[in-house]
Hints:
The protein is α+β, with helices and mostly antiparallel strands. Helices cover 26% and strands 29% of the residues.
Amino acid sequence: MNKNKTTSEYNVLKEMCHMHAPSGNEVGMKMFVLNYIKENSKNWKHKPKVIHGDGFQENIILIFGKPRTAIFAHMDSIGFTVRYGKQLVKIGGPVTANGFKLIGSDSKGLQEVELQVKDDKATGMRSLFYKGKRDFETGTELTFKPNWREDKNYIQCCYMDNRLGVYNALKVAETLKDGAIVFSTYEEHGGGSVSYLQKYLADKYKISQALISDISWISDGVSYAKGPVISMRDSLVPRRSYINKIISIATKNKCAFQLEVEGSGGSDAKELQMAAYPWDWCFVGAAEENVHTPDEKVHKKDVEGMITLYKALMKDL
């Protein structure tokens, strides 16, 4: 992949991909998003009500007009927690391979290290360590070292999942008249935040339908540059009538899209599915290669198609 100068169009996404925000420590992303809203919302067609702070942990909700549909975009990423010495424990489900560059900061400063993987053939167990000049303090979080690459067609870096989902939501916010946007936390490591966020939206605004702004996978049935994925199912099965409505709106608006059927994977939708409220939901997002590695790769056509599709859905749902 050729390295070219980053276009200003994706500078915000690049900056977010460099943010340290593993599950449980999303403060950096929260502050970035809040500052972005403060600086840019004056240029949006409609100014939202911004909800955050006490009772919302690190989550943010934007309310535009009279919302009917909520976009959920999680701000957290996968990573690792330093156990004792040079031992590591996964945050979420990162791919592990010898030599992956990791970075982290403790009271002694920033350090770059290498991931080390040790497989015990007798037990089938895998142990994770890091190789560095010094030991990190116990509890330090490590994340993949960002390496942004961009050419005419592709962008590639760690944490496209889900900084691209956040980027999409911020682009949709520029013209959104009626709707809610939720920037959630903890998605990569068991969830938890959407459970109370959906209750707030259902109680306060009577919202009962959602779009999950997240990143899917390139697979045998999903290709680059053919539009974002409308997922018909993953490990959970959404209500078919709602999926059909989304497909109908996408078709009517001549939006490029691909249909996805998987038997595994999940998202913020799992907490909507299990909620004590009748939520409809659909996962809609660009697909990437090299999922949960330092080299997540997406096609620019799919990024732009995702933004276009979301604008149409939020208008017509």
